[in-house]
Amino acid sequence: MDKNELLMNIYKIHTTHLVISRIKRNLGIEEDVVEFCKNKVLDKKSLIYRKGKNWYIENGAIKITINASSYTIITAHIIK
Q: What are phi and psi of 52, to 5 degrees?
């Protein structure tokens, strides 16, 4: 799948309260998690690819997983 599909639907990206707290803990951030993830999707340096039912966004040491059908942020973590 072409990453343009994700970019065209960026306004649909969302997540749950439980995931917000987990991502803040995983990444050590305090900012708005959804906006943080959207900014990573829009960053020209990000590697975006789809594998199965999920989109993966890799930027520096961060990897974000987004469900391809619902555009729900599933997780984000530091790549080890």
A: 65, -125
